[in-house]
Structure formats: C-alpha cells, structure tokens
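Inverse folding, one chain.
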C-alpha cells in the first residue's frame, strides 16, 4: 500500500522517514540534481556517470513512492516533495561537505566564502567593502563573470553568494535586492560640446564605445530616458567595462556606464557628463545565496556586510 506524504496530508510522513533512513550518497545526488537542474549537469559535479545519477534518483523515488522531479526535454523540474526534502537535507549535507573539505567547526576553522559577481562591481564596490573582514580572518574565493553563468554555477553549488544584475528565476535560490546602479552617458571633455539638450542629434556623429554589439546600456538609455530608438552602430566593442572606460577617457568617443565605475573620473574632470536627466535609468542588483550556505558563519558575515554597505552605493 502506498504511503501518504507530508505533501498529501500535511503531516510529517515520508520526507521525515526518508531523511533519517536514506543512503547519504543518494541524498547527495538528489541535492546536486536539485541545484543543477538536470541529471547531466549533476553528474560531473558528483564524479559519476549520467546513468548512475539517474539510477540513484530512481532509487530515492522508490523509497518515497513518489517522483521527486518532473522530467523535461532539457533538465528536470523539482516536485513539491523535492523542495521539502531539499530544505531538510541541504544544511546538514553542506556542513558535512565543509568538514570533509577541511573547514567547519570540527576542523577549527571555517571554509572560504565563495563569492561571484560582475568584474567591475567586485573591484569598485565589493572587495573594498569586505577588506576589514579579510583582515579579521575571513577567506574569500572570488569569481568574476556574467550573471546567467554565475547563477547556474550557484545552483550547482560552486558559489555561496552571487551578486546578480537580475533577480534569479525559480524558488531554488534565495535573493534580496542589494542596490540600484545608475547609468550615465559620458565622454572625454573634448566631446562635451556635443552633449546638449538634443542628445540624440548632438551625438549622431560621435563614435560609440560599448561592451556588446547589441548596445544593452546605451540602447536602454535611449528607450527609457529619451523615448527614442537607438540607430547608431558601435565604433568599438570590448567585453569589459574597464576597457570601455579606458577608451572613452582617452577620447575614443562616448558610452553609457555605471556611475559607480566612472564617478572618480567625473569628479577629476577626466570625463564629462553628457546628459543629466531627472530620472536616470537604474538597474537593481541582487544578492543571491546558495541553499544551505549560511551553515558557514563567514558566509553570513560577508552577506550581512554587503547588505549593510550597499545602502551607501
């Protein structure tokens, strides 16, 4: 006779029994699949073959008498029972993994905090904000990159915290708004005469420098602030905002940049502001956390420090 579950009748049933009797390796495999979103992605994280991962999940599902995941054409979707199980086992399994890796309370020291985010933001805001924690003994392992890949790596357990330029989709990752990033149009002072009230017309013949061919920042500026469609083509594309800043400061043309990145150049006169709208375009940054990461007290310290200092960004 099939057992009833906590999902079915609201009582502590199958999940409670499972978490106390299931094989530890099956639970580790389950958590890797839950976080990575597919059997295929979980396999290399576990050092297993994809068929072995599939077999272990089936074995776990046989113990519950219910499916944990809905199989999709690409990946899997956790069922309600999987969300409940992940909430029960992620903390203990992450703590055990930290001990096995040489961190945690049994080793006398905590594991390094694995933090990731956009390169420019890490350099300008994040690392300076965390300097005092490092001096106090916190270890950081920092990765830079684009939001989408970093969030996927967070789901797979590769990072503890990720600063993202958008809110993570789904319920597997907890996130909170961190700060609003303001974008500005800037150029070297020699180009400043082009920055009049008619921005679209005055910048028509000024070279455009951007970090991507689709002009995400400047195109959004034109749409949300100027109410126009941007028709310009970039003169220079380089996939690094520091490189964009360097080229624009040297006089290559104009660009749209985060104010935090170029404020020092504006204050010193190396860059000029081309437009000063009443409501500049903003992008909200989010701080996303891996489930179970707060079993490491230093993750909590880093998270809280970032949330505190971000108020002044």
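Residues assigned per position:
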């Amino acid at each position: 006779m099939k057992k009833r579950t906590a999902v079915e009748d609201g009582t502590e049933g199958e999940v409670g029994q499972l978490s106390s009797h299931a094989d530890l390796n099956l639970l580790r495999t389950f958590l890797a699949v839950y976080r990575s979103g597919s059997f295929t992605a979980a396999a290399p994280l576990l050092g297993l073959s994809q068929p072995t991962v599939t077999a272990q999940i089936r074995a776990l599902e046989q113990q519950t008498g219910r499916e944990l995941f809905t199989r999709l054409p690409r990946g899997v979707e956790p069922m309600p029972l999987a969300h409940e199980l992940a909430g029960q086992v992620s903390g203990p399994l992450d703590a055990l993994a930290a001990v096995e890796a040489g961190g945690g309370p049994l080793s006398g020291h905590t594991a390094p905090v694995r933090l990731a985010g956009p390169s420019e933001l890490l350099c300008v805001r994040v690392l300076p904000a965390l300097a005092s924690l490092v001096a106090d003994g916190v270890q950081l392992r920092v990765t830079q990159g684009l939001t989408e890949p970093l969030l996927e790596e967070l789901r797979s357990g590769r990072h503890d915290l990720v600063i993202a330029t958008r809110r993570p989709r789904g319920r597997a990752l907890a996130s909170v708004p961190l700060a609003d990033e303001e974008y500005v149009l800037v150029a070297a002072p020699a180009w400043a005469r082009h920055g009049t009230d008619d921005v679209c017309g005055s910048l028509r013949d000024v070279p455009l420098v951007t970090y991507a061919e689709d002009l995400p920042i400047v195109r959004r500026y034109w749409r949300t602030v100027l109410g126009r469609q941007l028709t310009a083509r970039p003169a220079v594309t380089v996939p690094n905002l520091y490189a964009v800043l360097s080229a624009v400061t040297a006089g290559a043309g104009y660009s749209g940049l985060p104010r935090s990145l170029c404020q020092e150049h504006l204050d010193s006169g190396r860059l000029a502001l081309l437009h000063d709208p009443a409501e500049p375009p903003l992008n909200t940054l989010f701080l996303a956390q891996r489930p179970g990461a707060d079993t490491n007290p230093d993750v909590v310290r880093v998270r809280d420090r970032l949330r505190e200092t971000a108020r002044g960004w």
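The chain has three domains: 6-100, 110-173+290-312, 180-283. DSSP finds 13 helices and eleven strands in the chain.
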